[in-house]
Amino acid sequence: MNRMSSENNLDKPKEDEIVRIDFAFRKELAEKVEGNLASFCYQCGACVGDCPATFYSDDFNPREIMLKVLYGLEKELIGEDSVLWLCTNCYNCTERCPQDVKPVEVIISLKNMLADRGIVPKTVSRIIDTFEKTGRTVQLSSAVTKERAKLGLKPLEEIPMDEIHKLLAPAEEDSGK
Ligand code: SF4
Ligand code: SF4
C-alpha cells in the first residue's frame, strides 16, 4: 500500500493497521524460553519450507508465529483460537533456522502457557490422560501385540509407573492434582 500523499508526506495509518507491541507479554515469554531465542529471528522464512503443520493448514506458519512473539501478541498466540496445537513438535524448523532460534522451543513454551490456562484440545487431553495412566501416549491393544509377535518383535516391556509418577509429581503439584 502506498502511504505517500501528493505532498510527499506520510499518511496517518488507520487504527486497525497499527500493531501495538505488548512489551510486558514479550518479556514474560522471553523469561520462559532460555536465551530469549525469538529475538534473533530475522523473518527469513526458512522454517516454513519443511513445516508439516504449514503444509496441511493455511493458518499455521512458524515465521508468523515468531513475528507475533516479537510483537508480544498474547491474544493471537495463546487465546482461545490459538493454532499452536497444530505444531507436531517435529523440530524441522529448528534444523532449518540459520539463526538458531529453535521455533519449536518457543512454541512448546507457548503451549505450556495455553495448558496453564486450560486451553487444551480434547485430543491432547486424551493423550495426557493415557500417558498418566499407562506411561504410553497410545493404549496398547491386543491387535498391536499380536501384530508385533507376527513380525517377530519382542513384547513391549512394562512401564515403571512409579518412576513416571515421580517425574510427573512437580507438574501435578503445580496443577493442584
Ligand atoms: S528460520 Fe529462523 S530466522 Fe528465519 S523466520 Fe524462521 S525462526 Fe526466523
Ligand atoms: S516443530 Fe512445529 S513449527 Fe516446527 S516444523 Fe515441526 S510442525 Fe512446524
Description:
The structure is a single chain. With 177 residues, the protein is an all-alpha fold. It has helices at residues 23-32, 52-56, 62-71, 74-78, 92-96, 103-116, 122-134, 142-150, 161-175. The chain has two domains: 18-116, Orthogonal Bundle (Fumarate Reductase Iron-sulfur Protein, Chain B, domain 2); 122-175, no CATH class. The chain is built from nine helices and no strands. α3 packs across α6. The N and C termini lie far apart (53 Å). The structure holds iron/sulfur cluster (2 copies). One iron/sulfur cluster binds next to α3.
Main features:
mainly alpha, 49% helix, elongated, disordered N terminus
CATH class of the largest domain: Mainly Alpha
Considering DSSP H and I runs of 4 or more, what fraction of the residues is helical? 40-55%
The chain-level mean pLDDT equals: 88
Question: What overall geometry do the principal axes of the alpha carbons give?
Answer: elongated
Structure classification? mainly alpha
Associated small molecules: iron/sulfur cluster
Report the portion of residues in β strands.
under 5%
- The CATH homologous superfamily of the largest domain is named Alpha-helical ferredoxin
DSSP strand count: 0
Instruction: Report, as a whole number of angstroms, the end-to-end distance.
Output: 53 Å
What would CATH call the architecture of the largest domain? Orthogonal Bundle
Which residues sit in consecutive blocks of at least 5 with pLDDT less than 50? 1-6
The sequence of SSEs as H and E is HHHHHHHHH
Structural Rg? 21 Å
CATH topology of the largest domain: Fumarate Reductase Iron-sulfur Protein, Chain B, domain 2
